[in-house]
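Instructor's aside before we start: the two examples that follow are unrelated to each other. I chose them only because their records fit on one page, so don't look for a connection. First example below.
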Amino acid sequence: MEFKVKFPITQSKTDKILNMPTEPIHILLADDDEDDRLFFKEAFEEIKINTNVKIVNDGVELMNHLTREGNQLPHILFLDLNMPRKTGIDCLLEIKRLAHLKDIAIAIYSTSSSEKDIEETFIKGANVYIKKPSDFNTLKKILEQVITVNWQYQTSGLNRDNYLLSL
């Protein structure tokens, strides 16, 4: 499933200051829960940022998509941990091992608030950990916050204290 959200692009002073891209931000969600995928899709439809969102249903689909030649790689991958066939942890490890994928910004997007999961994904190289919110407006705020970060510059300042994103 893929959807695009487009808005008229004009580069204002604010956009230039925030370094907001005029090209769409490519986002990939890997999540096996249909309701969570729908919630995610609807949130991006309401966020006024130029995005191109692709959704896959599990870890096997994710890795097939990422390794298929010619597919657009995402700027940000939202990765659920608890998926059938291949878990989010397994995908994270594989992504970090592959040279052409290792620099993708990865946001763990999970219902788990387990300290073990948070610690393990941090150590294995994810950029941020997001506990799936149950409130739609909170989800929109979190997604907007995550996609407006320039991950190219943020990865050097990663530390355990700012890894868990909460509003």
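Example two begins here.
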Amino acid sequence: MERSSSGWFKKWRRRRKAREGQRGAGGEEDHHHKVVVDGSEIRELVEDGEAFGMLVDTTFRQLDADGDGRLSVRELRPAVADIGAALGVPAEGASPNTDHICSEVRARRP
């Protein structure tokens, strides 16, 4: 998910900053970490109906690998893995602890 739609989001962010004359907001590094997206950017994106709709439609089409109009666990797994990787969560297979957690989650699915 992130790999596919991030280019569109970066363009939206640049247009937003240029429109507002902002510099140094989300995406800038501070002394401790890199801010990827801050709350104000998320709120603004959601409030921009056209931009948010385009992001959702684009992302859904990219995730819906079989084109059936529904997202299966198999189709969502890569997007969740990308989010986990961005947050520093070890991938399945990276350690026995990670594998145990993944097997517990799978066992609890309805």
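DSSP finds five helices and no strands in the chain.
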